[in-house]
Design a protein that fits this description.
Number of helices: 8
Oligomer: single chain
Pathway: Phospholipid metabolism; phosphatidylethanolamine biosynthesis; phosphatidylethanolamine from ethanolamine: step 1/3
Shape: globular
Family: Belongs to the choline/ethanolamine kinase family.
Distance between the termini: 50 Å
GO cellular component, one term: cytoplasm
EC number: 2.7.1.82
Number of domains: 2
InterPro entries: Kinase-like_dom_sf
């Protein structure tokens, strides 16, 4: 018993220090993003928290992600995000590190309720470790630059600023940077496109619903990519139509792998 207690205390200690380190890194990141007008201002930090600027605003709704002006500005914000150099490990370890952590937890789950056990067994029948290996191989074979990514660019993390609803631009702000890290560009944009599908305001179990017909069309994706590249690559708009088309089609492949 005492051994288990010691192990539990050691685990708690490790979790505490990991949490503290994550808080420090997130606060550093938050301060840099605020300085570059990509997030709310940071007024101070304290143990287990920080004091941020209050932004009069509302979160976007899922259906607003497809509005041309909204989509274009999200693309511009993401491009500015991706163009930053941050004082963190620049290897793209976050994505599969996070997935592996969750997979280990899933493989250890035990249920006493039979209905839950059936659902779990159905999930495990898909051979999730093999799926993880296949996904890693696919992503590593994809030509996608490693950039500083938001990693959770869904409507709930995009604010529409009060009083700027009818402005042509600079009416949005990205928030919630706890998942931000160096990652593959194609993942960040592709993940955002997948968020067009999901409505998290659904009131019944499982408290979200998916409409796969809402995934952006090729035209909508090209609109996003064009807005992204105009911000990310100076002179992109001055390229010939053929040169722009090559870049845009390469990005379509990168994003939709």
């Amino acid at each position: 018993m005492s051994c288990n207690k010691g192990e539990n205390q050691e685990t708690q200690r490790e979790n505490f220090f990991q949490g503290a380190a994550a808080m420090v890194m997130e606060s550093v990141m938050f301060a840099i993003l605020a300085e570059r007008s990509l997030g709310p201002k940071l007024y101070g930090i304290f143990p287990q928290g920080r004091l941020e600027q209050f932004i009069p605003s509302r979160k976007l709704e899922t259906e607003e992600l497809g509005l041309p002006d909204i989509s274009a500005e999200i693309a511009q914000k993401m491009a500015r995000f991706h163009d930053m150099s941050m004082p963190f490990n620049k290897e793209p370890k976050w994505l599969f590190g996070t997935m592996e952590k969750y997979l280990k937890q899933v493989l250890k789950i035990k249920f006493t309720r039979e209905s839950h056990t059936r659902k779990l067994n159905k999930l495990l029948s898909y051979n999730l470790p093999k799926e993880m290996t296949n996904l890693r191989a696919l992503l590593e074979a994809t030509q996608s630059p490693v950039v500083f990514c938001h990693n959770d660019c869904q409507e709930g993390n995009i604010l529409l600023l009060d009083g700027r609803e009818n402005s042509e631009k600079q009416k949005l702000m990205l928030i919630d940077f706890e998942y931000s890290s160096y990652n593959y560009r194609g993942f960040d944009i592709g993940n955002h496109f997948c968020e067009w599908i999901y409505d998290y305001t659904y009131q019944n179990f499982p408290f979200f619903k998916a409409n796969f017909s809402n995934y952006p069309t090729k035209k909508q994706q090209l609109h996003f990519i064009s807005s992204y590249m105009a911000e990310f690559q100076p002179g992109f708009e001055n390229l010939s139509n053929e040169e722009r088309s090559i870049v845009e089609n390469e990005m379509l492949i990168e994003i939709n792998r």
